[in-house]
Backbone:
């Protein structure tokens, strides 16, 4: 069992939308909620057991489907960002061309999982963090210039994609 979040007066209202289903929940949560608390809440809200693999990814530039796509309202249409161009060789035109053509535009800012293993793909530049150590206040902040995107996006344009492996589905 996870420890309860520390007391706060700062809350955020979140919509939890199941992908491919018209099922959602709207919940107001303290910003001191850890991702471990977040996981436990999702288990409770949707009646799931805690026996499956799961992880969360925090994305900037989230665009939701709106009323033009009634079946998909509230689900994510697009999200993410490319790895910064500064990570490539600035003086090499072929590296810049490679960045434009092949760098995925849908990378998360970071991943959150129950435990972080030391074995990591050296080409995966997305930071992975442990769910007990990360709070919602590290994602959304009162001053949007200090949110997880460093002001690149408003709080409303930041989202979490939670993946729950039901096994075999």
Residues:
């Amino acid at each position: 069992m996870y420890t309860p979040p520390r007391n706060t007066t700062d809350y955020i209202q979140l919509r939890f939308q199941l992908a491919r289903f018209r099922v959602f929940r709207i919940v107001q949560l303290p910003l001191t909620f850890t991702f471990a608390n977040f996981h436990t809440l999702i288990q409770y809200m949707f009646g799931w057991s805690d026996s499956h693999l799961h992880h969360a990814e925090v994305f900037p530039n989230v665009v939701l489907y709106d009323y033009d796509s009634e079946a998909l309202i509230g689900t994510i249409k697009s999200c993410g960002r490319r790895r910064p161009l500064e990570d490539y060789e600035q003086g090499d035109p072929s590296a810049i061309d490679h960045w434009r053509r092949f760098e995925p535009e849908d990378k998360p800012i970071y991943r959150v999982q129950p435990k972080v293993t030391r074995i990591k793909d050296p080409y995966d530049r997305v930071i992975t963090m442990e769910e007990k150590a990360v709070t919602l206040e590290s994602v959304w902040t009162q001053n949007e210039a200090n949110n997880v995107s460093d002001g690149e996006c408003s709080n409303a344009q930041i989202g979490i994609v939670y993946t729950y492996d039901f096994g075999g589905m």
